[in-house]
Amino acid sequence: MRIAIASDHAAFDLKAELAEWLRNEGHEIVDLGPENADRVDYPDFGYKLANAVSSGDAERGIALCGSGIGISIAVNRNPAVRCALVSEPLSAALAREHNDANAIAMGARLTGIDMAKACITAFLSTEFGGGRHGPRVEKLSQIPQDNGK
User: Fold this and answer.
1) Which residues bind D-ribulose 5-phosphate per the record (predicted)?
2) What are the boundaries of each domain within the chain?
3) 134 or 68, which is more confident
4) Is 45 helix (H, G, I), strand (E, B) or coil?
5) Residue numbering of the annotated binding site for D-ribulose 5-phosphate
């Protein structure tokens, strides 16, 4: 699978370790940066990841920052991308099964390497369940005209 991965400076080391692990697992990795641990702004890298996934340059995305919160917000600004903030494998699997998430976000300050690998494994191995979830997922890419009223 072709997977895009991006982080900010706080998650640079986690990104490097996960990218190497994913390559060893046989995946093609699109590393969107940063190239070192110098301070950067997470929205810039979240937007890069969202563009890679929405354009089809990558099938799935992995977004990392200190908490995972900021970069997940940035990624989700793109209506074609559904990025779930996850911290354990069940949430990663449910993000795929129920929400057809095409990206996940994790926090390097909150998630260790073994748990991050477990989340990614669940995310990559779970299929979208479809059925009753399909129409709900379609709504996620639409801007509501009535502001949810």
Assistant:
1) 8-9, 66-70, 99, 109, 132, 136
2) 2-140
3) 68
4) helix
5) 8-9, 66-70, 99, 109, 132, 136
